[in-house]
């Protein structure tokens, strides 16, 4: 099949080209993201392959893709909050995704954010390189024995729980669909209102849905234990960023570690080191000493890239052969 890739980076090209070396599919790579201005690039292609910050939400993009002949959207990610499933279904365009690509990779990154924020290894690294061997202001806290609140106990949440239990933490969780096996493994399911004040560290692993949009609001920050740490590797808009900034300013929120950001589309995955950043919110966030931001790299391991490409190409081949689409995203 002829597939147009959007938001392509060198690592996407390398992995997909290697796994498609038999030439089964015809792959064309575009650097630009897919949106209402760029959809005409997909003319003549059967499928588009897109990532987290490509947007197929506006009617003109959805209808536009149909008008240029696209029949399949292959998401090379798990989340599907960036596509309008209803509009696409009306246009008879199917959507497939990669439901899991090394959930451990994302969970391990969440732990990296916790460890860096807590033990300030990023600051220690710079200090020692400048022959500053002082420990002043590097005090952390012992994670062993702390209470960790996990919101969303799906694949990534479970991988994260296993690690935090290994640290000797008490794990409490909130999910709409509690899992018996986790209860047996010592996880206590509680309501969100119970989780917030009890947790020393809160980690978000739920999808972005209308009901989880700004789940971490002014109200939620007010209910948290003072000085708690909040980690987000799920989707940016699960946190109301302005509310987080207020909570950081008044000390209610002790630490914030984010791999995702509400307005990340215009920033993440790009080298803007030579540019003026017009986004004052991220500029404010980067001024806090207790905030750590990474640019959506939770998934970014070689194992995960391999898995993403393998599953995406299989999804496309299944569609081409008219097989049942195991990883179809339906309404
Ligand atoms: P999953 O579908 O396995 O698990 C999601 C869990 O959230 C489920 O248990 C579900 O019941 C729960 N949930 C749904 N609605 C909820 C609500 N209102 N409140 C609480 N829990 C709710 O998904 P996953 O593979 O664990 O991925 C979780 C999220 O991580 C994805 O949706 C995606 O946004 C994000 N993600 C980020 C990266 C990254 O690189 N940072 C990579 C992959 C996925």
Number of beta-strand segments: 12
Structural class: alpha/beta
Q: Determine the oligomeric state from the structure.
A: single chain
Beta-strand content estimate:
5-15%
Return the CATH topology of the largest domain. Rossmann fold
Largest sheet: 7 strands, parallel
CATH architecture of the largest domain: 3-Layer(aba) Sandwich
Separate helix tally: 12
Q: What's the SSE pattern? A: EHEEHEHEHHEHEHEHEHEHEHEH
Give the strand line-up of the largest sheet: 8-7-6-9-10-11-12
CATH class of the largest domain: Alpha Beta
Q: Helix fraction? A: 25-40%
Distance between the termini: 25 Å
Q: Could you list the spans in which at least 5 consecutive residues all have pLDDT below 50?
A: none
CATH superfamily of the largest domain: NAD(P)-binding Rossmann-like Domain
**Count of discrete domains:** 2
**What small molecules accompany the polymer chains?**
nicotinamide-adenine-dinucleotide
Question: Shape from CA axes?
Answer: globular
Radius of gyration: 21 Å
Average pLDDT, all residues? 97
């Amino acid at each position: 099949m002829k597939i147009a890739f959007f938001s392509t980076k060198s690592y996407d090209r390398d992995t997909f080209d290697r796994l498609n070396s038999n030439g089964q599919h015809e792959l064309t790579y575009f650097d630009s993201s897919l949106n209402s201005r760029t959809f005409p690039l997909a003319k003549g292609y059967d499928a588009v392959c897109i990532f987290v910050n490509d947007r197929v939400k506006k009617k003109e993009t959805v209808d536009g893709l149909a008008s240029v002949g696209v029949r399949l959207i292959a998401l090379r990610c798990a989340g599907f909050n960036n596509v309008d499933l209803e509009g696409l279904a009306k246009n008879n365009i199917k959507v497939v995704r990669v439901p899991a690509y090394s959930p451990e990779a994302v969970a391990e990154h969440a732990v990296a954010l916790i460890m860096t924020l807590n033990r300030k290894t990023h600051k220690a690294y710079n200090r020692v390189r400048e022959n500053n061997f002082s420990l002043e202001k590097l005090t952390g806290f012992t994670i062993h024995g702390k209470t960790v609140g996990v919101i969303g106990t799906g694949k990534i949440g479970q991988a994260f729980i296993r690690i935090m239990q290994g640290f000797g933490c008490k794990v409490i969780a909130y999910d709409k669909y509690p899992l018996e096996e986790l209860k047996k493994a010592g996880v206590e399911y509680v309501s969100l209102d119970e989780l917030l004040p009890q947790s020393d560290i809160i980690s978000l692993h739920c999808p972005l849905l209308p009901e989880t949009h700004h789940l971490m609001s002014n109200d939620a920050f007010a209910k948290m234990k003072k000085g708690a740490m909040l980690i987000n590797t799920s989707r940016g808009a699960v946190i109301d960023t302005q509310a987080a900034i207020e909570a950081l300013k008044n000390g209610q929120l002790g630490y914030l570690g984010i791999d995702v950001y509400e307005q990340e589309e215009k920033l993440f995955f790009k080298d803007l080191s030579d540019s003026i950043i017009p986004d004052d919110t991220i500029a404010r966030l980067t001024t806090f000493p207790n905030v750590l931001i990474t640019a959506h790299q939770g998934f970014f391991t070689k194992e995960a890239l391999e898995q993403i490409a393998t599953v995406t190409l299989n999804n496309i081949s299944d569609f081409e052969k008219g097989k049942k689409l195991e990883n179809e995203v339906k309404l």
